[in-house]
Amino acid sequence: MLIEREAESCYLGQFIPLQYHHNMLMDANRMDNFKAAIQRQVFEGAKVLELGGGTGVLSWFAAQAASKVYCVEFNPDMVAEARRLLAMNQYGDRVEVIHADAFEYLPPEPVDFVICEMIHVAMLREKQVEVIENFKRRYAEKFPGQMPVFIPEAVVMAVQPLQQRYDFSGYQAPIIQFQLPGAFTSDTIELAQPALYKIIDFTQPNDLLIEWDGQFTIETAGQLSALRFVTKNILAIVMENNSTIDWLNHYMALPLATPLSVAAGDVVQVSFQYRAGGSIESLQNSMRVSVKASAKLRSKHLSLAIG
């Protein structure tokens, strides 16, 4: 069982290169928002557990106030790197880097917070949901009573129809694209507003199967050639002013096997299903898109009825 999970983890990106983790340190949006959320949540003297610690930076944010941080990492190269980097930083000695599987590890004492950032767009590839659900069950058995606060606290996911251009210097290539949030280009046209398809609240039990069957009313005529997946992580809830500290993943645009011509007012039916932590291809292969109601036909029927 462990060997099978290790093989799957390698395939789905759990053992990504050190350089990828180094690049994450240079992602100011990710770093600043996690730092703000962790420093807001973790109180003086708290006990903290991080599952999937990477370079150890999120554990280090917690260590500014926490008296003890257990940082669990399965990749031996990352364990060595986290220990090296933490030794260079003040309060790094409050973090114990543990070489263990997050699916199996439990801390030796109750903790106040659990940080887990195994996050990919649409909650694919990485095992965030499965790891946390597995942890909650095992933790409750060992430490009956109050559950720790999770960082992130929740994940909000939406989907949006696009007209996506796939012309690369004349070479037609409908490929998966990761796009910067808020960056608009002529290659991407939004055909309708995004629709919410899933909220994952880590204080509640969560099913690993994610599925949606819904409709869009097209606002801009064009070729519906892709679905964009949007993932917003709620890192902390700020009760005082009813706001949140968020981290928005890169958008992920998945090309359709067969583009559809759509007109403004058309109603488009979209469905898909996948397992949290599964491959991108599993979602892409399940996508079904069709024109449910044509604005042109509706207009014709209305004219005939009036006539």
TrEMBL record:
Indicate whether Methyltransferase appears among the record's keywords.
Answer: yes
**UniProt domain Methyltransferase: residue ranges:** 48-137
Which InterPro entries does the record associate with it? Arg_MeTrfase, Methyltransf_25, SAM-dependent_MTases_sf
Q: Which Gene3D superfamilies match?
A: Vaccinia Virus protein VP39 (3.40.50.150)
Q: Which CDD domains match?
A: AdoMet_MTases
- UniProt record, GO biological process: methylation
Keywords attached to this entry: Methyltransferase, Transferase
Q: Which GO terms describe its molecular function?
A: methyltransferase activity
Pfam families per the record? Methyltransf_25
Q: Does the keyword Cytoplasm apply?
A: no
Supply the name of the protein. Methyltransferase domain-containing protein
- Naturally occurring in which organism (per UniProt): Undibacterium danionis
